[in-house]
């Protein structure tokens, strides 16, 4: 379970401040409160909060004014606006102004706790400070990844060699770093090399280093990657791509725990923990005599299979939230919503390139986002997913679907006299989703 957030409750009514204080404290959060926006800004200047839960309607400065003042001050806390029924216009404005979400007074408090848990999970993900698959383990909801986490916990504190298996883009190097960071060698270096990135002769020099004059162009001594990893972890990516000659040398290194630089016969002791990775089947490579079985025994004391993204769909929301937040910050985009069409694509596309492909696609979608919303830009979507036009109407299927959706939502709103709760129930979507649609389609309210 994630640790609680530091939350500032802002409401001019003491009764609501007390109710929210009890609700949030019982949910494991640290809670402070303020009776006005001015009081809140004073506290925000002096203290760091993860979340501000602010009433919309307050004297002097309302919740949206507080939100804008926070943005101007550079306060990084997320904001959830608390509204009353009928405050559709203001709720839409709050989302456009950068609020994470909103909560309607009098509705199920579980909805508020659910939104806060989204923020909590995102905070934990961002705090990991890793590069690609940051939410790889601790925040995963996937049973398969939970099993991976269990194995990692067991082997991290040992010096056993580990072979990470999985498709390209699943995060093998990130997992290798996770093992290193939780090992007894965490204060030592983490050195990585991709065996596919070098031709055989250059790879050997990279791995073992060389002395001056060892070959044409060797104008001075160079330390190899094995020596660079002294006292730490050496990550050998795409290890099953090693040539037979280098396989023999690697086997000797692992047996003797020493290396020789090219151009030297002096043995240098090394103290490393080896983690290897591959996207191939070790069994098939050995059967085809492309990889030595005795070397496999050495590098594969523990094998960890990382599932592809399509087999851990439970984590999609987590990854989407993380990458949207990450690239919104990178490109200074206040993205607060994802259109239904973009969401449907992200939830159904199989992502053959796994998390790396998801990251690349979301980065482009954020770059092309407009007015705080991600749309399904056809220039970003892989061609094998692109939806053809009907061939009957000059409009694309996307345009037709959007117009139909807009018309239907408008009719439902009119039918229920703009009661957001009733309309959302009829449409089978959340109230937040409906507010986003009202904003997206520019509907009158």
Characterization of the model:
The protein has 445 residues and is α/β, with parallel strands linked by helices. It has three domains: 6-127, 3-Layer(aba) Sandwich (Rossmann fold), CATH 3.40.50.2300; 143-306, Rossmann fold (3-Layer(aba) Sandwich), CATH 3.40.50.300; 314-441, Helicase, Ruva Protein, domain 3 (Orthogonal Bundle), CATH 1.10.8. It contains 18 helices and 16 strands. Helix 3 (63-73) links the parallel strand 3 and strand 4 (78-83). This is DNA-binding NtrC family response regulator.
List the helices and strands and how they pair.
Elements: E1 6-10, H1 14-26, E2 30-34, H2 37-46, E3 51-55, H3 63-73, E4 78-83, H4 88-96, E5 101-104, H5 109-127, H6 143-155, E6 162-165, H7 172-181, E7 190-194, H8 200-208, E8 209-210, E9 222-223, H9 225-228, E10 233-237, H10 244-256, E11 258-259, E12 268-269, E13 273-278, H11 282-287, H12 293-299, E14 302-305, H13 316-330, E15 337-338, H14 340-348, H15 354-367, E16 373-374, H16 397-415, H17 420-427, H18 431-441
Parallel strand pairs: 1-2, 1-3, 3-4, 4-5, 6-13, 6-14, 7-10, 10-13, 15-16
Antiparallel strand pairs: 8-9, 11-12
Protein name: DNA-binding NtrC family response regulator
Keywords: Activator, ATP-binding, DNA-binding, Nucleotide-binding, Phosphoprotein, Transcription, Transcription regulation, Two-component regulatory system
Modified residues (4-aspartylphosphate): 55
Descriptive key words:
alpha/beta, 3 domains, Rossmann fold, 5-stranded parallel β-sheet, 14% strand
């Amino acid at each position: 379970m994630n640790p609680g957030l530091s939350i500032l409750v802002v409401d001019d009514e003491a009764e609501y401040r007390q109710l929210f204080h009890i609700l949030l404290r019982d949910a494991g959060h640290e809670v402070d409160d303020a009776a006005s926006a001015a009081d809140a800004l004073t506290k925000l200047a002096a203290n760091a909060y993860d979340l501000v839960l602010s009433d919309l309607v307050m004297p002097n400065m309302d919740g949206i004014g507080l939100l804008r003042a926070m943005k101007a001050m550079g306060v990084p806390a997320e904001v959830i606006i608390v509204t009353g029924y009928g405050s559709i216009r203001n709720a839409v404005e709050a989302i456009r102004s950068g609020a994470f979400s909103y909560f309607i007074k009098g509705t199920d408090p579980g909805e508020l706790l659910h939104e806060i848990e989204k923020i909590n999970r995102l905070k934990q993900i961002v705090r990991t400070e890793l590069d690609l698959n940051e939410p790889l383990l601790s925040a995963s909801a996937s049973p398969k990844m939970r099993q991976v986490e269990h194995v990692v916990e067991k082997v991290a504190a040992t010096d056993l060699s580990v072979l990470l298996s999985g498709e390209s883009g699943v995060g093998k190097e990130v997992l290798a770093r996770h093992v290193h960071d939780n090992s007894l060698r965490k204060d030592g270096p983490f050195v990585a090399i991709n065996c596919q990135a070098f031709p055989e002769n250059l790879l050997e020099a990279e791995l073992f280093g060389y002395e001056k004059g060892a070959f044409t162009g060797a104008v001075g001594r160079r330390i190899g990657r094995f020596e660079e990893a002294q006292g730490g972890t050496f990550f050998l990516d795409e290890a099953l791509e090693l040539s037979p000659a280098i396989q023999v040398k690697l086997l000797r290194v692992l047996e003797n725990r020493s290396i020789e630089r090219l151009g030297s016969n002096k043995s240098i002791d090394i103290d490393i923990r080896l983690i290897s990775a591959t996207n191939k089947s070790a069994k098939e490579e050995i059967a085809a005599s492309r990889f030595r079985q005795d070397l496999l025994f050495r590098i594969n004391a523990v094998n960890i299979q990382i599932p592809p993204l399509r087999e851990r769909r439970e984590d999609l929301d987590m990854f989407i939230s993380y990458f949207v937040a990450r690239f919104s910050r990178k490109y200074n985009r206040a993205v607060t919503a994802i259109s239904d069409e973009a969401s449907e694509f992200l939830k159904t596309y199989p992502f053959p390139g796994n998390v790396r492909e998801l990251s690349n696609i979301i980065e482009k979608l954020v770059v092309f986002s407009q007015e705080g919303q991600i749309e399904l830009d056809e220039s970003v979507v892989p061609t094998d997913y692109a939806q053809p036009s009907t061939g009957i109407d000059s409009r694309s299927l996307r345009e037709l679907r959007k117009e139909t959706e807009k018309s239907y939502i408008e009719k439902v709103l009119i039918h229920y006299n703009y009661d957001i709760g009733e309309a959302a129930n009829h449409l089978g979507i959340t109230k937040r989703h409906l507010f986003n649609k009202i904003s997206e389609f520019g509907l009158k309210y």
